[in-house]
Write a structure and sequence with these properties.
The protein is of the alpha/beta class and 196 residues long. It has a single domain, classed as Flavodoxin domain (Rossmann fold, 3-Layer(aba) Sandwich). The chain is 40% helix and 16% strand. The protein contains six helices and eight strands; from the N terminus they run βαβααβαβββαββα. Strands 1, 2, 3, 6, 7 and 8 form a six-stranded parallel β-sheet that branches. Strands 4-5 form a two-stranded antiparallel sheet. Helix 1 crosses helix 6 and helix 3 packs across helix 4. The longest helix is centred in the last third of the chain and has 21 residues. The protein is globular. It starts with a strand and ends in a 6-residue tail after the last helix. This is NADPH-dependent FMN reductase.
Length: 196
């Protein structure tokens, strides 16, 4: 079985290092034979998570659309920046709203159930955004996502990529190869995807 992997970044900033890291992950996943879908969270704009708003208007349509994307894939590859040593608000808000999706078309629906995720981080600093991944890992696990152990963290990201978007350092290329291979193997083993 060829696993389907959903790839996205936790930032919408023009030239975001996390987007460049997500692109590098996408290329490596494709080289290893996965079926890739690359999305932008900007295409799923959501209000701030608010249970009063949910009670009044229900779960936003974009949260349901994102939930369907997640459910239609075997695994997730998330490339995230670090905001104040934690998860960027865009990414946290998207996960929080998507986790509120419980039904689709009247049937029970758990988009994160049985999914596996791989995490990457990037920063122009020496910590490579790795501190934010501790929190992201915990949030995803609370949503019943299995998060694989290998991860790829890109330090000094403004200098990390060549003109083709590839990592300059062999160490980073090796990390990404390992992360993608582990994600593909685990996603194929755990597949519970729901076709839209």
């Amino acid at each position: 079985m060829i696993p389907r992997i959903l790839v996205f970044a936790g930032s919408l900033r023009t030239g975001a290092y996390s987007a460049r890291t997500a692109d590098a992950a996408m290329k490596e996943l494709a080289l290893q034979g996965a079926d890739i879908t690359r999305i932008s969270l900007g295409d799923y704009a959501l209000p701030l998570m608010d249970q009063d708003l949910e009670a009044e208007k229900g779960v936003p349509e974009n949260a349901l659309k994102l939930a369907r994307q997640i459910a239609a894939h075997d695994g997730l590859m998330i490339a995230s920046p670090e905001y104040n040593a934690s998860i960027p608000p865009l990414l946290k808000n998207a996960i929080d709203w998507t986790s509120r999706v419980r039904r689709d078309g009247g049937r029970p629906f758990k988009p994160f159930e049985g999914k596996v995720a791989a995490l990457c981080s990037s920063s122009d600093g020496a910590f490579a955004g790795v501190r934010g991944l501790y929190h992201l890992r915990a949030v995803l696990m609370a949503c019943h996502v299995e998060v694989i152990s290998p991860q790829c963290s890109v330090a000094r990201a403004s200098e990390a990529f060549d003109e083709d978007g590839q990592f300059r350092e062999e160490r980073l290329r090796h990390q990404m190869t390992t992360v993608c291979r582990t994600l593909i193997d685990r996603a194929a083993m755990m597949s519970t995807r729901v076709e839209p």
